[in-house]
Amino acid sequence: MRKLKLLTLMTALSVSFSAWALSLNDAKEQGLVGENTSGYLGLVVQNKQAKEVVITINAKRKERYIKLAKKNGLTLAQVEKLAATKTIQKTQSGHYIETNGQWVQK
């Protein structure tokens, strides 16, 4: 019985912690992160949770870019440049993009 209560508590806590996690969309909506000219996310505002989002998403993007580069006979830099153009174009109005080294709202 005691193990069941402990397991239930641990499950509840893990759900609670994940509920506190900042999503990419939340970070963009709050103006904490934006799309930069390198094809990755950048921090608009220093924030611990936003930094974790940037690190996680950028690692996943880099993995994908490497696969795309190999598949299409391109360099990583070429894929990053293409991705930057695409993600900046797709950025919603009001979200941040990097332009000339400065963060601006689209």
Overview of this structure, please?
With 106 residues, the protein is an alpha+beta fold. Helices cover 61% and strands 13% of the residues. It is built from four helices and four strands, in the order ααββααββ. It has a four-stranded mixed β-sheet. A hairpin with a 5-residue loop joins strand 1 and strand 2 (41-43). The chain is globular, with a radius of gyration of 18 Å. The N and C termini lie far apart (56 Å). Mean pLDDT is 86; it is low at 4-19.
Mean pLDDT: 86
Strand order of the largest sheet: 2-1-3-4
What is the overall shape? globular
The count of helical stretches stands at 4
Helix content: 55-70%
Number of strands: 4
Give the biggest sheet: 4 strands, mixed
Into which percentage range does the β-strand content fall?
A: 5-15%
Cα-based radius of gyration, to the nearest Å = 18 Å
Q: Which blocks of ≥5 consecutive residues have pLDDT under 50?
A: 4-19
> Helix and strand succession?
HHEEHHEE
- Give the N-terminus to C-terminus distance in angstroms: 56 Å
Find the structural class using helix and strand composition. Answer: alpha+beta
